[in-house]
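Sample entry (323 residues):
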Amino acid sequence: MPDIRAYGKNARLIAGIETTWGTAGTPTTFRQLSVENFDPGLAIPKKEQLVIGNGPELQSGSTYTDGQELSPSFTAVIGVFDCLPIFRMAMGTPVTTGTTTLTHVFNSATDLPEGYTLEGGQTNISPAVYQLIAGFKVSNLAIDLSPEGVMKAKLSGRAKAYSESGTSIRSTPTTYTAGRYLNKNFKLKRAGTDLANVQSFSMNYSTGLETGRLLDGSGTIGFADAGIDRCTGRITLRFTADSQLYNDALAETASAFSLVGTTPINAGYSLTFDWARLLLEPISDPVEAAGGVMRSFNFVAERVSGGDLMKVTVINNTAAANI
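Predicted structure, serialized as tokens:
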């Protein structure tokens, strides 16, 4: 029996790549995403244009709107297989090699997709309500890793158009085999060597997305162009006698770092983030009461000549056509 109100437990989020930005993607391209939450980010702000001579109260006809503002965001649970569309949204189409076991390499220098259509489905009410968001492009991909839990990524961006319907654009989207990357199975490496005593790692990858309206009569944003990629973050470790990172920061020495995750699903499957150059910035190390002392470093990534700011490598058995 349908519920009176919508519940998150029955909601779903699907995504399909677009051929033309802002025009809903072909239904067969839609994949179901594994998400923890989803916000369409819809706003239609009211503005006022006041004129004098009409007394102390707001006159009828003084309010107006410039149109929809759409800033969707969602938190994805990074899986062994369903992480692929997440990284494609943020970093473009990967280079895929291999036969049975496939290697998918996402490079930050790759152009973003033309756009994605997102559909949030409230399926437990009657009639169902499907929230269609066209022209979604990612502005930020953020990861916050601690020793416990599963890997998650928060994606946020801008989109062109929002509508609601009682019919889904794809009632049976492609789904992926379950399988999660656990935080405990990740290691942070500097120049190929494991770093000891790492407590947490956070990273924010920005596509430098620039959006704006045009004088085209639509009332929606007229362009969404990727700018200059940036990647920043923070590494937090237990304060020990190991001064390698401190020395790097002090000498302004850039090093290659990688974050490598494995999975018990298959010994050959993995998820790896690579940065050819990370520059570290030491920050204050407060001593608070009698507890252990932590040492933290902010970082900024730089692109190397002929290389990438950031590279993400996914190894699994998912065909390129199913990303």
